Structures are given as C-alpha cells and as structure tokens.
TrEMBL record:
<feature type="domain" description="ASD2">
    <location>
        <begin position="1"/>
        <end position="103"/>
    </location>
</feature>
<dbReference type="GO" id="GO:0007015">
    <property type="term" value="P:actin filament organization"/>
</dbReference>
<dbReference type="GO" id="GO:0043296">
    <property type="term" value="C:apical junction complex"/>
</dbReference>
<dbReference type="InterPro" id="IPR014799">
    <property type="entry name" value="ASD2_dom"/>
</dbReference>
<keyword id="KW-0206">Cytoskeleton</keyword>
<dbReference type="Pfam" id="PF08687">
    <property type="entry name" value="ASD2"/>
</dbReference>
<dbReference type="GO" id="GO:0030864">
    <property type="term" value="C:cortical actin cytoskeleton"/>
</dbReference>
<dbReference type="GO" id="GO:0016324">
    <property type="term" value="C:apical plasma membrane"/>
</dbReference>
<protein>
    <submittedName>
        <fullName>Shroom family member 4</fullName>
    </submittedName>
</protein>
<dbReference type="GO" id="GO:0005912">
    <property type="term" value="C:adherens junction"/>
</dbReference>
<keyword id="KW-0963">Cytoplasm</keyword>
<dbReference type="GO" id="GO:0051015">
    <property type="term" value="F:actin filament binding"/>
</dbReference>
<dbReference type="InterPro" id="IPR027685">
    <property type="entry name" value="Shroom_fam"/>
</dbReference>
<comment type="similarity">
    <text>Belongs to the shroom family.</text>
</comment>
Length: 103
C-alpha cells in the first residue's frame, strides 16, 4: 500500500515539475529553470528507488503467496490473490480520482 502510494505521489509530483518546465518561456531565466531541473532529477531518483522497493515487496509477496497456497484451499488462495491485486488497483484508481477532483 505505502509503496504504491509513494510511487503515485512521486509520479504526480514529477508530472507537475515536467509540466512547469514545459510551460516555461524558452527564454526563461536560468535561475527559474535550474531548480526545476534539479527537482526533476531528484524525483526521478526517488521514483527509481521506490520502484526497486516495490520490486522487493512484490518478490516478498510471491513468497508469502506460495506459503499461503499450501495452507489455503485453492478457492481461498484465489480470493487472497484477487484481494492483493485489487487493493493495489483500487489505490491507483483512488489517486487518479483525487487528482481529477483537485483539478
């Protein structure tokens, strides 16, 4: 949950910085553009780190799922897998709706 939320937050912030950079006048002062470019680099690095963290969490989730498959009935395991998948999808959808409301 938290890693997905972090990635969504970082992606949104990165999009806003890129949009601001795109709308800057080509003749914009170097002092305006430089902090935005640095912020973009920082957000890209953080997003990459968050992706690495998500990959680790996903691998750990697969291990947990395999253990639970031995303990649950096939139907219970399917329900568990569906729950995990839907939880992440609903977080993404919630963030998208919040962004639309904010606009």
């Amino acid at each position: 949950d938290k890693v997905v939320s972090l990635m969504l937050s970082l992606s949104g912030r990165l999009l806003r910085v890129e949009t601001t950079l795109d709308t800057l006048d080509p003749e914009a002062d170097h002092h305006e553009r430089l902090p935005l470019l640095e912020k973009k680099r920082q957000l890209l690095r953080q997003l990459s780190e968050a992706q690495d963290l998500k990959d680790h969490v996903d691998r750990r989730e697969q291990v947990v799922s395999r253990v639970l498959a031995r303990c649950f009935t096939p139907e219970q395991h399917r329900d568990y897998c569906h729950y995990v998948k839907m939880k992440a999808a609903l977080l993404v959808e919630q963030k998208q709706l919040e962004d639309k409301i904010r606009l």
